[in-house]
Structure prediction request, 459 residues.
Amino acid sequence: MAQLWGGRFTKETDQLVYNFNASISFDKKFYEQDIRGSIAHVTMLAKQKILTEDEKNQIIEGLEGIRSDVERGVLEITDKYEDIHSFVEANLIDRIGDAGKKLHTGRSRNDQVALDMKLYTRDEILELDRLLKELLEVLLRLMKENTETYMPGFTHLQKAQPITLAHHLGAYFEMFKRDRSRMKDIYNRMNYCPLGSGALAGTTYPLDREYTAELMEFAGPTMNSMDSVSDRDYLIELLSAMSTVMMHLSRFSEEVIIWNSNEYQFVEIDDAYSTGSSIMPQKKNPDIAELVRGKTGRVYGALMSLLTTMKGIPLAYNKDMQEDKELVFDAIDTTKGCLALFTGMINTIRFQKKRMEDSAKNGFTNATDAADYLVNHGVPFRDAHGIVGQLVLHCIEKNIALDDMTLEEYKAISPVFEEDIYDAISMKTCVEMRNTTGAPGKSAMGDVIMAYDMYLNVE
Ligand code: ARG
Prediction:
C-alpha cells in the first residue's frame, strides 16, 4: 500500500477498504495526461517563483523519465499505489528526492483528477470526430455512386415510395453530421482548465491559472473552484452524444441485417465482415451489425449510471465521482470500436441493385405517382386514389406490378390512361420528379452531394 495521506492515521487501512477505494486499476489509463498536467503545473509554479528554476527542471526531467519508462515498458504501473497520481508522485520522489516533494504545491488530487479526465476525454472527442468523419466519407462515396440506384423507401417497414440508395444513405449522413456537431459543441463547452482550483476553495499561492490553461491549450481557466472539482456535466453530455451515435449505428445495423436477410437480399456483407455457423454450413451471419446493435445498450447504461451517480452529490468533490472513469472509458472504447468496424463493413458491402429496383417495382411504390398522373389529367385526387386502389387490387390478383399491366387493362379501369402512363410510373420518373430540397431526385441530390463535399473539405 502506497498512499499520499498517512500522517493523521494511527492504523493501517484495512486491505479490503484499500482495494475498494483504489482506482489505479483503471486510472492508470491516463498516466500520460497526469504527467502532462504536472509538467504544466510546475512550469507555472516556477514562473510565479513558487519553485526555483532548478527545482522545476529536476521535476520535469523526472516526470519525463517516468513517462518514457512507462512507455517503454520498463516501469510497470502496479496496484501497489492507490491511484495514478500517487504512482507518479511516489516515483518522482524515488528518482529525484526532495524536489519531487514540491510537485503537489498548490494542488489537490481533486483538481488534478478533474484535469486528467478532461485532457483524456478532450483527445478522445477529437478521435470520435475523426472516426465519424471517416464514416461520412464512405457514405458520401456510396451516395455519389448510387444516385440512380432505385429502391423502395419504407414506412412501417411497408414499401411506400421509390427512392434511391443515395437518398437513403443521405439520411444517415445527416445523422452522423449532427453527431459530429454535438462532439464539437461538447469540446468547446468543456475546454476550460480546472487546475488551480485546489481541493475546492482555490489556494493561497499566487498561481497563474490563465497561464496553466494556456500551456495545455484550454480556452481559459474555469471560473468557480467548487464547480471545477465537481463538474461532470461534460461527461454526461459526452455519454449522451455517444449514446446518440450508437442509436444511429444501431438503426443502420438493423437495416443492414434486414437487407442482408435471405428474404430481402438487398446487400451482401463482405466475407471479411461476416461469420459462419458451427453447425449450419450454409450460414453467413451479419454478426458485426448485430454486435454494434447489441453494444448500444452498454453505452446507454453508462449514461444512466453516471446521471444516477451524480444526482445526489452535494458540493464539492465526493468520492462517488471516481465512478465516472470505468463507465466513460468503456463507453468511449465501445463507441470508437463500433464506428471503426461499421465503417469497414459499409465500405465493403455489395448492394444488389437489381433486387432493390425490382423490390420497389413489385411493391407498388409507384402507386402515388399513378394517382398523380390521373390528377394531372384532371381527375380529382380522391377519385384518383380510388382508381389506383382498383389497379393495385387487379395486380395483386394477377400477381403482377403496375408496370406489367397492358394499356387495355388500364383503360378498362379508367379511360384517362394513355401510353405515357408507363413512363410516368417508371422508377426513374417517380424519383426524378421529386426534386424539392432534400428529396431523392437527381438534381436535388446533386445539390446535397455538393454541399456534403464542401462540408467534408472544410471540417
Ligand atoms: N481517484 C480519485 C477519483 O477518481 C481521485 C481524486 C481523489 N481525491 C480525494 N480527495 N480522494 O476521483
